[in-house]
């Protein structure tokens, strides 16, 4: 093999050395000359090292240190590419290991082992090797060192570095998985702790026999995912041995633990290993270094903080009395897996992560690989929180290693497949980068360097060859952003806090306890509810697994709503329709607000539930903005959807599908309290505008095509009337309208009239046709002459009729006319026609006032349904909508000619105009406005609850309770809602008596 720019048998050029990766070509050429032919033969492998200059310098030092054996090593490297690759890659990536080889040059032969690339040493073999290095017998139940103390301490360090050298060579050259290397490092740490304990036993002497001491690893060592350089977190557990007094055993155990820590952390001629940190013990550094099992239990049961249980998740016995260590782990495990039930557990863990971020030094924040935003801790905290919350019921999640736990979470459906894969890749990358950073000098650091040489070395060690520093930085930042996104999504998932609040038995949903729990939660038919649960969670599919995660929380949310049984039944039907889609359950799992909204909607509103069951895809709406769209935006969407269809029926079905979705958006917005009553009225009116406008366009084209018309013979407009004209529609309202047309110049009047009638009828037919959405009834009964009059009139015909025949009630109806759909110029001219009629300059006559009052009295007497409670009828009851609206309309007819602020079709705007004009006292105006809003809100709520138009406050106890909840009352406040309603309408009636009836 030849290096770039080097022919076989030739010395490389300066350019060839630079292309091979050397930064100082002159120095490299000189050193290669010193090594002779064997050195030049190694040039291709040197070019594959993370830092070829560093690797060459380390090789030269090692040859010099070997003396007469140096040429033999060079010859061996030239003959064995595997050994050469392992040695030179270590020398090019780690100055610390290069220094170790300089002190112990014979260790280079460790890298000649051909099994290094394929075999990971067993943990027991590593332990035995380290014990033998300090002169201890691995077979002894309590092995003790037999070497002189200083010799044993140094021997432990030398053996530790020898094994670490072999491990680093595997890591750098054989593409070993980061989780395998981390586990191997943890095994090395465990063996080292055992060797240090053997030295400690010799130091303590016979007293050591009085105590059984277990070393329990925590953190990354406990999780089998250790770094190259890290504090090794431990907890020491002891018990008296052979009936020894507890005080004596405690002294001995404390001495053993203290000496173990000292052996590992002392700095000798052979350097140090790493600090052993016991700060995770009960009471931290203030507490005793060692405790008995009973003492640990008492502390954890009474005093432990949330973070301590999170730390115990990775507890693992690694040295000393392993049986005692296993007893300790078995003792704390139930506490760990019930910790999520502690008050505020999720919030405490989240707050702890925020505190970590706040304490990162400002100069490190952007390059902190471990603690910074998008770093390793973001992954670990998210995974551990999900484990602790869901692991109570799912034992497959009870694994200590982060990547293994993430795999289990993904397999169990707690994390989406794509999210799980993305986080797995990001975490593995960050751990590899962390390993390479620490390996260089074997220092405990987690800061990504900012100098180009270091980034270049790191990039090359990770396989980036084109622009190592640039490519590494780009990859790191990509994974950092991805980790931060997923951390925010998983760690702050609203569902977690809700799941954590459920008692452990509620999470498991065992059939034996489910019936009692369902009954206790308020389900009227627990047996039926249990059947729904079994149908949703049966089997081993991913869908069933996610449902088992969701349902404990959903059951609680259903129970907080008025009709839990209806909520669960609706959820089953929607899940049956959508459960196989890739987004439905993932959305509910990952976006807790959507799941909570869905639960509230299904268990409260038959109207919204019916919309969802007709179109389950509408669940997507729950995850977005619930503000109603403008009529312009809706119309564009409707026309676009219609344009992709062939027949008029199909086009209007597409229009109605958009309307169905928007009805759901508005209904959910009101149910969750984001939309107040005027916004709902405006949203529904805008939606009707867009629906009529788009349908009018479709109908016009269809009729023209049927009749073979080349050009439209007349302009058509639709005039909104009643609550539609007042921008005050409710869910059950028809669209009260009048149709007006005006023939274009030169058109035959009969052709124009026939066309206009056909279009109007087609609009009504298409919108009233049966479908999967609520039909829109277009009611034209308020037109001149009512049902006996023509459906469509020309604008001149309207002018003639109103000039000759119209009565006071027709002018009153025109108060709420608003030309909103169709030809813009015709709409303007129609408004100009009716304004003088509905807002007469001098007001209506006293005779007309009397006539209006007479008609109102007749309406009150004749139209109130038989048996209806006049105090609770929303429209015609005392102080209800009709009372308030007729009062405002009478003021308009009498005074709008002189007060322009009264010239509006909208009730609340007209009410404000009357106040501004001095026609109403401020208190009276406030009472009427409050009553109108209150009654309108109750009417909407009753329709949402019952699923059909409601003009009466429901008599059914559950429905009335649901209305109260929709209105914002707490459960159990139904009577308060009714009393508030009666008080409000009674006050409104008093104002109506004074102002309307005079």
Automatic annotation (TrEMBL):
It comes from the Bacteria. InterPro entries: GlnE, GlnE_rpt_dom, NT_sf, PII_UdlTrfase/GS_AdlTrfase. The keyword Disulfide bond does not apply. Residues 503-998 are annotated as: Adenylyl transferase. Residues 351-491, 855-996 form the PII-uridylyltransferase/Glutamine-synthetase adenylyltransferase domain. It catalyses: [glutamine synthetase]-L-tyrosine + ATP = [glutamine synthetase]-O(4)-(5'-adenylyl)-L-tyrosine + diphosphate; [glutamine synthetase]-O(4)-(5'-adenylyl)-L-tyrosine + phosphate = [glutamine synthetase]-L-tyrosine + ADP. Keywords: ATP-binding, Magnesium, Multifunctional enzyme, Nucleotide-binding, Nucleotidyltransferase, Transferase. GO terms for molecular function: [glutamate-ammonia-ligase] adenylyltransferase activity; [glutamine synthetase]-adenylyl-L-tyrosine phosphorylase activity; ATP binding; magnesium ion binding. The keyword ATP-binding applies. Residues 86-326, 596-831 form the Glutamate-ammonia ligase adenylyltransferase repeated domain. Its cofactor is Mg(2+). Its EC number is 2.7.7.89, 2.7.7.42. GO terms for cellular component: cytosol. Residues 1-495 are annotated as: Adenylyl removase. Pfam families: GlnD_UR_UTase, GlnE. GO terms for biological process: regulation of glutamine family amino acid metabolic process. NCBIfam families: PRK14109.1. Involved in the regulation of glutamine synthetase GlnA, a key enzyme in the process to assimilate ammonia. When cellular nitrogen levels are high, the C-terminal adenylyl transferase (AT) inactivates GlnA by covalent transfer of an adenylyl group from ATP to specific tyrosine residue of GlnA, thus reducing its activity. Conversely, when nitrogen levels are low, the N-terminal adenylyl removase (AR) activates GlnA by removing the adenylyl group by phosphorolysis, increasing its activity. Belongs to the GlnE family. This is Bifunctional glutamine synthetase adenylyltransferase/adenylyl-removing enzyme. The gene is glnE.
């Amino acid at each position: 093999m030849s290096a770039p720019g080097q022919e076989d048998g030739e010395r490389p050029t300066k350019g060839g050395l630079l292309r091979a990766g050397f930064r100082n070509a002159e120095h490299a050429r000189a050193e290669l000359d010193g090594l002779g032919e064997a050195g030049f033969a190694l040039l291709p492998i040197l070019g594959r090292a993370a830092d070829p200059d560093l690797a060459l310098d380390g090789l030269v030092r090692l040859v010099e240190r070997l003396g007469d054996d140096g040429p033999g090593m060079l010859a061996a490297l030239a003959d064995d590419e595997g050994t050469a690759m392992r040695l030179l890659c270590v020398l090019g990536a780690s100055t610390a290991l290069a220094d170790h080889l300089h002190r112990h040059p014979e260790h280079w032969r460790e890298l000649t082992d051909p099994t290094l690339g394929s075999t990971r040493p067993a943990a027991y073999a590593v332990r035995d090797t380290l014990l033998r290095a300090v002169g201890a017998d691995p077979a002894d139940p309590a092995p003790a060192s037999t070497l002189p103390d200083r010799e044993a301490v140094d021997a432990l360090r030398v053996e530790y570095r020898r094994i670490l050298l072999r491990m680093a060579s595997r890591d750098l050259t054989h593409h070993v998985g980061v989780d395998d290397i981390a586990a191997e490092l943890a095994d090395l740490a465990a063996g080292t702790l055992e060797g240090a304990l053997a030295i400690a036993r010799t130091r303590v002497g016979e007293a050591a026999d009085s105590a059984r001491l277990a070393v329990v690893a925590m953190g990354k060592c406990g999780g089998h995912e250790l770094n190259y350089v890290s504090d090794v977190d431990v907890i020491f557990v002891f018990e008296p041995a052979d009936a020894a007094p507890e005080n004596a055993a405690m002294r001995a155990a404390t001495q053993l633990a203290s000496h173990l820590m000292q052996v590992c952390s002392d700095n000798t001629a052979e350097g140090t290993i790493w600090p052993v940190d016991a700060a995770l013990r009960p009471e931290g550094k203030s507490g005793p270094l060692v405790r008995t099992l009973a003492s640990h239990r008492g502390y954890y049961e009474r005093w432990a903080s949330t973070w301590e249980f999170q730390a115990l998740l990775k507890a693992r016995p690694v040295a000393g009395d392993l049986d005692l260590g296993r007893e300790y782990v078995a003792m704390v495990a139930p506490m760990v897996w019930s910790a999520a039930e502690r008050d505020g557990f999720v919030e405490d863990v989240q707050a702890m992560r925020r505190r970590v971020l706040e304490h990162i030094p400002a100069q490190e924040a952007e390059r902190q690989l471990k603690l910074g935003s998008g770093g390793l801790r973001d992954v670990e905290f998210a995974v551990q929180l999900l484990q602790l919350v869901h692991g109570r019921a799912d034992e497959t999640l009870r694994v200590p290693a982060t990547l293994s736990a993430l795999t289990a979470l993904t397999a169990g459906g707690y994390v989406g497949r794509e999210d799980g894969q993305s986080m797995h890749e990001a975490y593995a990358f960050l751990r590899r980068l962390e390993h390479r950073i620490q390996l260089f000098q074997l220092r405990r650091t987690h800061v990504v360097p900012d100098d180009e040489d270091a980034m270049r070395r790191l990039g090359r060690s990770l396989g980036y060859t084109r622009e190592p520093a640039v490519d590494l930085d780009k990859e790191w930042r990509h994974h950092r952003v991805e980790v931060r996104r997923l951390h925010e999504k998983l760690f702050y998932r609203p569902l977690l806090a809700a799941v954590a609040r459920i008692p452990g038995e509620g999470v498991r949903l065992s059939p034996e306890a489910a019936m009692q729990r369902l009954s206790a939660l308020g389900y009227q038919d627990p047996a039926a509810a249990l059947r729904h649960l079994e149908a949703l969670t049966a089997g081993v599919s991913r869908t069933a697994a996610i449902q088992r995660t969701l349902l404990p929380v959903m059951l609680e949310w259903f129970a907080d709503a008025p009709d839990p049984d209806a909520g669960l039944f609706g959820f089953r039907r929607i899940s049956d329709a959508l459960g196989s889609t890739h987004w439905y359950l993932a959305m509910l799992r990952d976006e807790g607000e959507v799941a909570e909204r869905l639960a509230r909607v299904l268990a409260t509103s038959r109207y919204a539930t019916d919309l969802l069951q007709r179109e389950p895809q509408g669940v997507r709406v729950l995850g977005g903005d619930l503000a109603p769209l403008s009529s312009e935006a809706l119309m564009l969407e409707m026309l676009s959807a219609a344009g992709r269809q062939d027949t008029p029926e199909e086009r209007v079905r597409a229009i109605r599908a958009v309307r169905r979705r928007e009805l759901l958006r508005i209904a959910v917005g009101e149910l969750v309290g984001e939309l107040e009553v005027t916004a709902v009225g405006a949203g529904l009116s805008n939606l009707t505008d867009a629906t009529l406008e788009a349908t009018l366009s479709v109908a016009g084209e269809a009729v023209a095509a049927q009749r073979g018309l080349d050009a439209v013979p007349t302009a058509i407009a639709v005039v909104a009337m009643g609550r539609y004209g007042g921008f005050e529609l409710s869910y059950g309202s028809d669209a009260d309208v009048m149709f007006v047309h005006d023939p274009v110049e030169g058109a035959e009047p009969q052709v124009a009239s026939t066309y206009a009638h056909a279009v109007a009828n087609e609009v009504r037919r298409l919108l009233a046709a049966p479908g999967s959405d609520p039909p829109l009834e277009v009611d034209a009964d308020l037109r001149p002459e009512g049902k006996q009059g023509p459906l469509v009139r020309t604008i001149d015909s309207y002018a003639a009729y109103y000039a000759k025949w119209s009565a006071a009630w027709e002018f009153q109806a025109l108060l709420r006319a608003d030309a909103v759909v169709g030809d813009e110029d015709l709409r303007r001219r129609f408004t100009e026609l009716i304004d003088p009629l509905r807002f007469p300059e001098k007001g209506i006559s006293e005779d007309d006032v009397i006539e209006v009052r007479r008609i109102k009295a007749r309406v009150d007497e004749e139209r109130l349904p038989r048996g209806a409670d006049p105090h609770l009828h929303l429209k015609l009851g005392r102080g209800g909508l009709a009372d308030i609206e007729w009062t405002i309309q009478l003021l308009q007819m009498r005074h709008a000619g002189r007060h322009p602020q009264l010239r509006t079709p909208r009730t609340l705007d007209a009410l404000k105009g009357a106040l501004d004009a001095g026609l109403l006292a401020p208190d009276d105006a406030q009472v009427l406005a409050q009553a109108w809003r209150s009654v309108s809100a109750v009417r909407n709520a009753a329709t949402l609850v019952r699923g059909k138009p409601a003009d009466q406050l429901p008599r059914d106890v559950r429905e009335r309770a649901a209305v109260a909840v929709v209105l914002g009352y707490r459960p159990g406040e139904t009577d308060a809602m009714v009393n508030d309603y009666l008080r409000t309408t009674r006050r409104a009636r008093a104002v109506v008596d004074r102002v309307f009836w005079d």
